[in-house]
Amino acid sequence: MQDPSIASFTATPATITSGQSSVLSWSVSGVTSMNISYGNGTLTGSNTVPLSSTSVAVTPTATTTYTLTATNQAGKSTTATISVTVVDKPVINSFTANPPVISDRQSTTLSWSVTGATGLTINNGVGDVTGTNSVTVSPSATTTYQLVATNATGNGPSTAAVIALVTVTVVPTPVITNFAATPSTISNGQSSTLSWAVSGATSLSIDNGIGDVTTKPSVSVSPTTTTTYTLTANNTVGSFTATATAQTTVTFSVLVVPTITSFSSDRPSVGPNGSVMLTAVFDPGAGGGTATVDHGVGTIVSGTPLPSGNLSASTTFTLTVTNVDGKSATAQVRVLAGTLSVFAGVPSVPGNSDGTGASASFSLPRGLAVDTAQNLFVADTNNNIVRKATIPAAVVTTLIDNSTGLPAQFNGPYSVAVDTAGNVYVADTNNDTIDEITPAGVLTILAGTPGTNGSNDSPGALFDGPQGIAVDSSGNVYVTDTNNDTIRMITPAGVVSTLAGVAGAPGKGDSPAHFNFPTGLAIDASGNLYVGDSGNHTIRKITTPAGVVSTLAGAAGLRGSTDGTGGAARFNNPGAVAVDPSGNIYVADVNNYTIRRISPAGVVVTIIGTPTVPTGNPGGPLPGRLSIVHGIAADPSVNGNLYITMQNAVFTAPY
Question: Is the pLDDT of residue 48 over 60?
Fold first, then answer.
């Protein structure tokens, strides 16, 4: 007679949490009866083990050892044992944030009380917190944190885990981009205007008796002593208020100081030998004084227009007002004089020929960049090449093309930027990559994967239709990742991060920042970025490296062509942007068919083209005629030229 035999006796899983089940399985031979026993007796009832069974489910409440006894007809028995380990679930007694509401410049403490856990983790970058009971976090936006408490026992694959959630509400701090006094010095009987630009505030107030100014863009003050004013911007959500402040001082002088209210030209640009009417509004103070305009214009009377005389070149006029006490004040206005003309290529004839001036040809060129050696680089988009032109000779050559054997090839390159070492960076839009061309002509992919779009930061960074590009003095490259509605940063080491905006979440807010189809990008000498936020019809400013976003000009969602200051100006799908050495920003206002200039103070003026009047024959004496403008660059030399791409050519005009 065959002896009873147990080939296997297993528990799956061998480790469970309280309330879970494990399946006991076996394989036997030579057996006429079986039973399974454990510390409290034998499995009975629904768990009775018939001879024909090969498994049974058990739900122990504590770690239990099971014994399988197999017996043959002669009464001979054999046994095997298996243990099921039961892991107790940890208990999260509390998980809190103190305070639960903060501003985007504050921190909060996450605290917890947990028993029976061998491991603790918190998401959103906090990580492992085992062995601690609190951690400080500084979220930039409202964030829900998840505490996971685990209890792992033995070598089994099962771990008991429980979670708890707590939400930290972040109230964005208002952004004060400007708070100024004009004029900053006054005397007896004079006034100064306090003006400001603020975003993200629910209320505004100024001290020294002024009070609430929430609905006002400015206020007039007449202090009799030197006074510092503090503007307080509050953003209140529920019972919490995030606050920002800024100060400006009005200096009171016993001596009368002239005040200049405005100094303007009736036209910002004219053709060669054209003239403008200059108008100044000023007050020299008691006792009178003199007011003159340079460049041979002469004496000017407040409120009375005065002709400039014929202008052979762009001119910055300076008004000087001097009173009887010898105190003076000045103001300036710049008038462009010249012609919008073709620099290289033939507007109506596409091609890909190198040559000088009109003998060269392009096919829908877009982005432009000028280096300090007076070389102009052009993204020749439909030709899938990058061109180089000398200034002022306009000798055009192909810097790099899609010849066989190159490590990278272009597909719709949209814009270019050049650093101080002569490296050229290309936003290769249809390839979803950022490329680099060394001075030796070596082309490599700096970031992104050709043909694969996405929004990942490094490692494995991806882009989606990048259009604008700029580079700072440290070699950091910035990109408008257009289809992702974000601004990206690439370090010289090739590490990609998202500087501003949220991928896949178009919007118009400054804090937290959102963009809507950002296209053009430029950088000034201080490292400030300027973005043509096309879908919002605004120009945005980003400070680096902090990534603080503000709206410099225009109003989100409102199209138009009105000149004005800051939010009073209107744009219609602004695209390419450029910055000159004086900090003036130039904008290709695409659907207005104009070039706009924004002063460092945010004053917007139309300098080239006529709003909403396109032409198939661009050019002519300023303000000239424009078709759709694709790219714009400013010669870095003072009083240089603008370079503009339209149709199949590069144009130039003075700035």
Answer: no
* CA 45-47-52 angle, 5° bins: 110
Give the angle 110-114-115 at the CA atoms, nearest 5°. 170
CA distance 95 to 413: 51
**What is the C-alpha to C-alpha distance for residues 249 and 263, in angstroms, rounded to an integer?**
23
Beta bridge partners of 356: 395
Where on the phi/psi map is residue 160: left (φ > 0), alpha (ψ -120 to 50), or beta? beta
Sign of the alpha-carbon torsion through 643, 646, 647, 652: negative
Q: In what order do the strands lie in the sheet with 160-171?
A: 101-103, 160-171, 143-151, 119-122, 127-128
In the numeric block, the tokens 């290309």 are attached to: 426
pLDDT of residue 337: 97
pLDDT band for position 382 (cuts 50, 70, 90): very high
CA dihedral 150, 153, 155, 161 (to 10 degrees): -20
The tokens for 610 are: 């006529």
Own/partner contacts of 345-351, CB < 8 Å, gap of 24 or more, are 345/396, 345/648, 345/649, 345/650, 346/648, 346/649, 347/617, 347/618, 347/646, 347/647, 347/648, 347/649, 348/647, 348/648, 349/648, 350/382, 350/648, 351/648
State residue 153's pLDDT score.
Answer: 58
- Evaluate whether 533 touches 522 at the Cβ level (below 8 Å): no
- Burial of residue 309 (CB within 10 Å: 0-12, 13-18, 19+) is middle
Query: What pLDDT sits at residue 47?
Result: 44
Q: What is the pLDDT of residue 454?
A: 97
Q: What is the dihedral of CA 391, 393, 397, 400, to 10 degrees?
A: 0
- Examine the pLDDT at 617 and tell me if it is beyond 50: yes
**Residue 163 — φ and ψ, nearest 5°?**
-130, 160
User: Cβ neighbours of residue 367 under 8 Å, at least 6 residues apart?
Assistant: 378, 379, 413, 414, 415, 416, 427, 468, 469, 576, 630, 631, 645
pLDDT at 255: 73
Q: What are phi and psi of 61, to 5 degrees?
A: -95, -5
CB-based contacts of 599: which residues, under 8 Å, 6+ apart? 583, 584, 605
179/186 Cα distance (integer angstroms): 17
pTM greater than the 0.85 cutoff = no
Q: Count other Cβ atoms within 10 Å, centred on residue 400.
A: 22
Q: How far apart are CA 613 and CA 192, in angstroms?
A: 40
Give the confidence band of 640 by pLDDT, cuts at 50, 70, 90. Answer: confident
Instruction: Pick the range with the lowest mean pLDDT from 154-168, 296-310, 431-445.
Output: 154-168
Q: Please, are residues 425 and 434 in contact by the beta-carbon 8 Å criterion?
A: yes
Q: What is the pLDDT of residue 179?
A: 96
Do 345 and 650 contact (CB within 8 A), yes or no?
yes
Given a cut of 50, whether residue 537 has pLDDT beyond it is yes
Q: Which of 199, 262, 191 has its CA nearest to residue 227?
A: 191
- The pLDDT of residue 262 is 94
Under a CB-based contact definition with an 8 Å cutoff, are residues 643 and 374 in contact?
no
Residue 648: alpha-carbon gap to chain centroid: 31
Q: Which pair of tokens denotes residue 265? A: 């030209």
- Placement of tokens 């400006």 in the chain: 248
- Of residues 161 and 235, more confidently modeled: 235
pLDDT tier, 404 (very low <50, low <70, confident <90, very high otherwise): very low
Instruction: Tell me how far apart the alpha carbons of residues 122 and 147 are, in angstroms, rounded to a whole number.
Output: 5
**Mean of the per-residue pLDDT values for the chain?**
92
Residue 526 phi, psi dihedral angles, 5° rounding: -90, 0
Measured CA to CA in angstroms, residue 26 lies from 48, 51, 64, 76 at distances of 14, 11, 17, 18
